[in-house]
Amino acid sequence: MSDRDTERGAQTDGAGEAVEAVEADVDELQARVARVREEVGKRIVGQHEVVERLLVCIVADGNALLESNPGLGKTTLVRTVADATDLSFSRVQNTPDLMPSDITGTEIIQESGDRREFVFEKGPIFANVVLADEINRATPKTQAAMLEAMQERQVTAAGDTYQLPRPFFVLATQNPIDQGGTYPLPEAQTDRFLLKIVVDYPERGEERDIVRLYAEGREPEAVDQVLSARELRAVQSLAREIPVADDLRDRAIDLARATREDDRLEFGASPRASMALVLTAKARAFVEGRSHVSWEDVAAMAEPVLRHRVILDFRAEREGMTPDDVVADLVDEA
Amino acid sequence: MTDEPPRERMERAIRVIRREGRKAALVEATVEAAAVLVAVDLLVAVVPLAGVPATVPVPDAVAPTPALAAVDTGAVAAVLAGLVVFVLGAWLRLRRPAVERFGAVNPAVAEALRTARDAVRADRESRMAARLYDETVERLRETSSLGLLDVRRVVVALVVVAVLAPASIGATATGFQVTLDGGSDATVPSSSTDEYEGLQEPSSVLGESEDVEAGSQAVNATVQSSGSGGNESREATADAYQSGFGSGAVETESQQAGFAEQERLEDAELVREYNLQIRQEDDQ
């Protein structure tokens, strides 16, 4: 395949429909992505890094695993991102009794006149942005159904295949505490998430602003819709076109490979991690308004890309290290 | 605004950067080579190398004039050293890609330039690549290729040339040399500061003294002379000759001083002066 990039003109989306590429100016699209960040900032106090990573994940057309303790605004964050665009939003609260068909949809008998026929009733996964809350509370069977849909961008029911809408994101959350009655995602499943974003507690000043914003009677400021789904598709396409220098690409690959050789890690990242690292670095460059990838992008995305794809050696774990510590060291050495 | 496609503009910009890189590398290598040439020339002029001929013969086919039939060994060594330093310096500098060197002195455009270079090489013409080319070419207008030249290094090399070149000329003109006898450096100027500028070392004129085997055969010799007071001829034996030499009225021809043929005569006037002195001593 030639290196020449020919991705211009008409594109075909996942549903098989031809959509015209948005010929808007690249600067204009980058400005709109920046506006999305500003709009999210109207409702989300602080958490700039989390917002940036979430946007990067969306621009890179990936799925994110958000990990945080309860009450840190994960749902508000995802809903606000959906509001700032014209993307449809749905939420799935995972529980142990949730069935795969509760997510993907099921065939129901529909009566029309004297006819009865099976009709596929689409589940909540048929939305542009799907928030899968506490995914580790669902049974492995339900998790697998969701993650398969997430990976394949399609759902098969009763022999028929249904394409999921594009763009499509699953933003799954999991709670690191209160692990009783949970089904932790296996490594093979977590590898399917482009990023694992850790939402941490806000600073004191930020928490004061949050209280002032949501607990003093005022209505939170309305979020403007600044980016359409079509424009978002164009943004995703442009982000993939961003050139990356050969040496930077090689360094990113070496960084991912280094996780397989580090003594502190029992298992390292897969080649999918190398692809994710380069792809998210491109997306970050676009979000930052650049037309080339810098090492700063690769370094910034290393932790969220690699942290859920590596397993600590028990000795390192005993010493109190975390995957983030090891990845940070590897970035410094790269 | 030009109609030239962004990719071609970028290619042209990269060509210019490479040309500037070559120029800077050659300038630095040339100046360093000149400094080494002068330094070696001075070194060879001041420190005599034992066992090395003073001149190197030049083949007739190469020598433009008979005067250049032999070239000073020191000059040849200096030129060779300069040539080696030039080739080595240029090779080491040109080995590192010009774009990387340019990026190192203009870090603001380093990553964009490297990316654009790789994108051009990969023949990318997407919208983002075109935007990168435009941005990079625009940003290159605010950069300078002067940084490619290590000005401090060049200045130091030029100062070395400026200092050593006159010193080298002076050392050659005055014949200043440093000997390394006895493990300690001793400065012995070849031109004497004594007032007397005449003959000081006869051996330099006559050559080394040689042992001559004494003759084993005694031969009688007869010397005939005509006295002033009579017509009779007188004969004397060798013994008589030896004992009476100088005291009688016997005339003898003076002998010219000899010297070994392999010794070179550097100053015919000195030889002549020395001969005259010998004759005077003999006459006394």
Structure description:
The complex is a heterodimer of chains A (334) and B (284). With 334 residues, chain A is of the alpha/beta class. Chain A folds into 2 domains: 21-241, Rossmann fold (3-Layer(aba) Sandwich), CATH 3.40.50; 242-334, Magnesium chelatase subunit I, C-Terminal domain (Helicase, Ruva Protein, domain 3), CATH 1.10.8. Chain A is built from 13 helices and 13 strands. Chain A has helices at residues 26-43, 48-59, 74-84, 100-104, 140-152, 187-190, 204-214, 229-241, 246-261, 271-287, 295-306, 314-318, 323-333, and strands spanning 10-12, 18-20, 64-67, 89-93, 105-112, 115-122, 129-133, 154-157, 160-163, 169-174, 195-198, 265-267, 311-312. In chain A, the strands form 5 sheets. A 5-stranded parallel β-sheet of chain A has the order 4-7-10-3-11. Chain A has a two-stranded antiparallel sheet with strand order 1-2. Chain A has a two-stranded antiparallel ribbon with strand order 5-6. Chain B is mainly alpha-helical. Chain B has a two-stranded antiparallel ribbon. A two-stranded antiparallel sheet of chain B has the order 3-4. Residues 182-194, 227-238 and 243-249 of chain B have low confidence and may be disordered. Chain B folds into 2 domains: 6-187, no CATH class; 202-283, no CATH class. Chain B is rod-shaped. The N and C termini of chain B lie far apart (106 Å). Classes of the chains: A alpha/beta (334), B mainly alpha (284). The A-B interface holds A 2-5, 7-8, 26, 238, 241-248, 291-295 and B 111-112, 114-119, 122-129, 131-132, 135.
